[in-house]
Amino acid sequence: MDGKNGKQCCTVQELLVIEPLNRSVIVAGWSGKQRKVSRVVGIRAVSPTTILEDALLIVYPDEKLFDWESLMALCLPSSAAAIMIINPQRVLSQQLVEAAEKYQIPLLCHHHPITETDAVFSLELVFKLKEQEKLIGFAENSGLYQVAVTFQTDLPTFLKELSMYLQTTVILVNSVFQILNESGRNEKLTSQGLERIIKSIYQQYRQQHDSDRIFQNRYRGDVCTESGELIHYYIDKLCTGSRMFGFLLVLKGGKHLNELDLCRMGQTSLLCIKELINKNNIQQIETKYKDQFIYDLLYNNFENEKALIQRGRYWGWDLRVPQQLFIIELDDYKTPINKDQLLAELTLVAQSFLKVKFRQFIIAEQQEQVVIIVPVTAEDVKMCKENIKNVAKSLEDNIREVLPDLRVSMGIGKFYSTGVDLCRSYQEAKQALELGRFIRDKGHITHFEDLGIIRLLAHVSMEQLDDFYKEQLQAIIDYDAKTSTKFLDTLQTYFEMNGDFNLTAEKLYMHPNTLRNHLKKIEEILDVDFQKMENLLTLSVACKISKMYKTSH
Amino acid sequence: MEKRLGFLIDLSKCVGCKSCEIACMNKHHFTQPRYRRVLNIGPGNNVFEFLSLSCNHCLNPECIRVCTEHCYKKRRDGIVLHDPARCNGCRRCEGACPFSVPKMNPQTRKISKCNFCYELIDQGFEPVCVSVCIVGALRVVDLTQPLPLGSQKTLPDFPMIQFTKPSIRFLLPNKPIYSGRFS
To answer: DSSP states of A447-497 as a string?
Structure first.
């Protein structure tokens, strides 16, 4: 608390908590924010020989007394605590700014008229608040920072201001830690390096705070760069109620942020939330109109192809080129409460993945699924089925990497050369997704053409299917129940592996000869001959129905 | 999807009067094919249980998928419409629909099906089948909104394909309560 001569003092940073000094703009030398201030000195009382240690120097440029800038250049080496210029009439000289940086003396500008008495009063108030240990609480609740920057309502300004204040890197990321905006990045830190750091922060965040994601709003931790440098990170969760907007991230090498720095970070977070809410509302309106168009596209709500192409053009989509469609659906989610949030995160991940792969694409949430439409180039047409499956596979890998807790399944529709046929492709993709669950495990990627006989079975009522498979397999079901064997599983795996003994044996962890014996036993129980195609086909269909039955119950 | 209109059938109220069926036929001015049919689904003839069925305006309509002429469309309120002007009478939709709803009109040689009386809906009225149901067994509901308690997607002992996600819900009849005394 006390300065060198036993006087009361505070840091420059602490002084700027109090009105009206908190409206000051930091121009340079903020690395000296911890300098001690114990008194206020006006420029008129200064001569080149004056000792300015521990003093906040206040300058009034409109007083035409003398060349104040030259005098200040002389004063800077005399280690004043900080220099505050009131209502500067012109741009400060580069020399002055460089000198402030060099001597680490905060150079501040204030655009409202304040007197020395005001500054002294503020200083004394800070002393009092510090004495009673109420300064941090005051800084947290004052809310004056918001007033000060109300007129600067764009996110880059907030981030720039914060990065200048904290003298470090500030990043705004979305809910899946993809960079939306950044400020104050060190030249040494490349964008790839930054992405790597954010990725490892995201992993730490997910691991450590998975259980209490809903409740905590600020996290901190440490992360190592590739060069082995330790970086402290601070994360503010930007959310209101159940609406999640993203995170404000501060990376700080060396010392930790102090309490006042964290206060400023919290205030910037509030401003970011306010700005993001506005942006989100605008985006929601746009999305609503866009979704309506996509609904019309997917359900053939157009007069003709010309009208479709015309309306697509409004959204910047060229629907004259052939398109391919696939849909993604969440397999399971922990609670239905966060379903919308998970879907939004899934869309964000898919969007950033597709941005890298395609110049133009359509993505939308429809009926709790994510619909993706991508163009197919002339060379792709022959290979389009394989290509789209590869795209879907790499997207699934990407989703698993970014959102490891999420399991998704995908359905792919057939390729059609015209945009009006997208409605058919959409229904096919939905069917592939829905029926794919019957023949494959969770996390499947199914093309409509790969559904096979299931497509026909889907048209038969469950009761009839139930009768059929029980007729064919009841004997084996009863035998399994009586003897605790798993012959039905063996038979199903045998068909899944296309009748390959070695593969089936490997999958079931048994010797191929044991498998042969089991299949022989199954033949006996069911009274069939596996050499007859007809028997194999009937049992294969019955096994598929059995799986359908299990999945749907 | 803004809305998803569908039918809610209260089996405890339906008395099998067929007024919905007749009103539908009357509105569409022909006898064949019928858009709406009332079935007796009670076991044997001992119990009266009736089910009034027409197009279910599915969420995943098979008719849209199979139609090469793009005759079908699904409006933003969920109603599936057929445009006979585009229809070439190939009957693919007839076979694809699990409920066999689209039917060939022998006079026009084109497919026709229930259109939910969309012109009445647009004017704020109910479809004729619903408005004539004097016992209130047939209702129009928006499936995106909460439905009456006890409404179900399927009926016990009545096979119904579900993969097209039909926009139809049922209220099952309660067990009859007899408060008198058997003599």
So the answer is: EGGG-TTHHHHTTS-HHHHHHHHHHHHHHHHHHHHHH---HHHHHHHHHHT
Amino acid code (one letter) for A379: E
Structure tokens that stand for A294 in this block: 């996509």
Q: Strand, helix or coil at B79?
A: coil
> Are B73 and A299 a contacting pair at CB < 8 A?
yes
Binned at pLDDT 50, 70 and 90, residue A144 comes out as low
CB-based contact B76 A295, cutoff 8 Å: yes
Residue of B nearest to A302 (CA): B73
**3-class DSSP state of A319:** coil
CATH number at residue A206: 3.30.450.40
Q: Measured between alpha carbons, how far is A191 from A287 in angstroms, rounded to an integer? A: 30
Q: Model-level pTM greater than 0.90? A: no
Q: Which residues of A touch B (CB under 8 A)?
A: 292, 295-296, 299-302, 366-367, 420-421, 423-424, 427-428, 430-431, 434-435, 458-464
B69's tokens: 């002429």
Question: Which residues on A lie below 8 Å from B63 (Cβ)?
Answer: none
Going from the C-alpha of A458 to that of each of A52, A465, A539, A544, the distances in angstroms are 87, 9, 17, 11
Q: Do A467 and A537 fall into the same domain? A: yes
Residue A372's domain is classified under what CATH number? 3.30.70.270
Residues A118 and A153 placed together within one structural domain of the fold? no
Q: Residue A232: helix, strand or coil by DSSP?
A: strand
d(CA B40, CA B60): 27
Question: How far is Cα A3 from Cα A83, in angstroms, rounded to an integer?
Answer: 19
Q: Does A396 reside within a domain? A: yes
CB within 8 Å: A434 and B74: no
How many structural domains does chain B have? 1
CB contact (8 A) between residue B76 and residue A366: no
Residue A381: which domain range?
A: 299-452
Structure-token pair, residue A344: 């939004």
Amino acid A177: pLDDT:
87
Residues A380 and A448 in one domain: yes
Amino acid at A104: Q
Q: In which domain, by residue range, is B86 found? A: 5-171
**Phi and psi torsions of A388, nearest 5°:** -70, -35
Q: Kindly tell me if the per-residue pLDDT of A1 is higher than 50.
A: no
Helix (H, G, I), strand (E, B) or coil at A363: strand
User: B61: distance to nearest CA of chain A, Å?
Assistant: 7
- Residue A525 domain-assigned (yes or no): yes
Interfacial residues of B (vs A; Cβ cutoff 8 Å) = 1, 59-62, 64-67, 70, 72-76, 98, 159-163
Same domain, A447 and A305: yes
Give the closest of B73, B98, B163 to A301, CB-based. Answer: B73
Higher pLDDT, A64 or B77: B77
Q: What is the CATH number of the domain that holds B133?
A: 3.30.70.20
Q: What's the total number of domains in chain A?
A: 4
Residues of B in contact with A299 (CB under 8 A): 64, 73-75
| Burial A521-537, CB ≥16 within 10 A → b, else e | ebeebbebebeeeebbe
- Asked if B140 and B130 count as a contact pair (C-beta separation under 8 A), the reply is yes
- Separation in Å, CA B164 to CA A97, A295, B18, B161, B168: 71, 17, 27, 7, 11
A536 CA: distance to closest CA in chain B (Å): 27
Q: What is the mean pLDDT of residues B148-157?
A: 85
